[in-house]
């Protein structure tokens, strides 16, 4: 069995740099404090600290004291570890928000009660503005002037938007062989 050492061999006449264990012990609080400051969460900071030292141990042989201090080197690794965690956390939050939004859509039911699945799908395919005009003019039976005033657009714009929306709906329903 061979003893494992983390010190790199030094040329004769130079002072040996401290081993990884000594550096880790000396700088553990600095790295943890830095990560705690970045994340504002002690549990995350602890996890990231362990990831930082795990990565540092794997890279220890490449550490060059001539390029900077061990403290700066470890803090750079800690920063990279934290940035990776922030990116990963942001992706996770977006996935959760999308899933939550899909659940809310499922809970809200269809656009109009009693609509066929095909019509509901066709309505969902319209832009938000087109759906709004259809809802106001067709479902709620507001006139053009009331709709225009409510949306803050001209009566002509309401008419144009409604016409385009109805054309899209007719085309989609024709694709489903629903319109005779």
| CATH H-level homologous superfamily name of the largest domain | RNA polymerase sigma factor, region 2, helix turn helix motif
CATH topology of the largest domain: Rna Polymerase Sigma Factor, Chain: A
Structural class: mainly alpha
- Helix percentage: over 70%
Distance between the termini: 85 Å
The CATH class designation of the largest domain is Mainly Alpha
Low-confidence stretches: 1-10
Label the CATH architecture of the largest domain. Answer: Orthogonal Bundle
The total tally of domains equals 2
Quick check: average pLDDT? 83
The helix tally amounts to: 7
Secondary-structure element string? HHHHHHH
Shape: rod-shaped
Residues in β-strands, percent: under 5%
Round the Cα radius of gyration to an integer and report it. Answer: 31 Å
Structure description:
The protein is mostly helical. The protein has 2 domains: about 90 residues, Rna Polymerase Sigma Factor, Chain: A; about 60 residues, Winged helix-like DNA-binding domain superfamily/Winged helix DNA-binding domain (Arc Repressor Mutant, subunit A), CATH 1.10.10. It is about 70% helix and about 0% strand. It is built from 7 helices and no strands. It starts with 19 loop residues before the first helix and ends in a 5-residue tail after the last helix. The relative contact order is 0.07.
Question: Key features?
Answer:
180 residues, mainly alpha, Rna Polymerase Sigma Factor, Chain: A, Arc Repressor Mutant, subunit A, 2 domains, rod-shaped
List the helices and strands and how they pair.
Blueprint: H1 20-39, H2 42-59, H3 70-107, H4 117-125, H5 128-139, H6 144-151, H7 155-175
Helix pairs in contact: 1-2, 1-3, 2-3, 4-7, 5-7, 6-7
């Amino acid at each position: 069995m061979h003893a494992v050492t983390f010190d790199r061999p030094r040329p004769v006449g130079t002072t040996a740099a401290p081993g990884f264990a000594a550096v880790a012990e000396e700088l553990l609080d600095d790295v943890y404090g830095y990560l705690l400051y970045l994340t504002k969460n002690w549990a995350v900071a602890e996890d990231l600290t362990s990831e930082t030292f795990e990565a540092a141990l794997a890279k220890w042989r490449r550490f060059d004291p001539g390029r900077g201090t061990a403290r700066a080197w470890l803090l750079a690794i800690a920063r990279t570890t934290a940035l990776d965690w922030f990116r990963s956390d942001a992706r996770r939050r977006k996935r959760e928000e999308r899933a939550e939004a899909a659940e809310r859509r499922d809970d809200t039911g269809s656009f109009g009660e009693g609509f066929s699945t095909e019509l509901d799908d066709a309505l969902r395919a319209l832009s938000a503005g087109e759906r709004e005009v259809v809802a106001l003019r067709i479902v709620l039976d507001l006139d053009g002037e009331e709709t225009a005033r409510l949306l803050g657009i001209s009566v002509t714009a309401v008419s144009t938007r409604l016409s385009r929306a109805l054309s899209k709906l007719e085309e989609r329903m024709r694709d489903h062989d629903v319109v005779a």
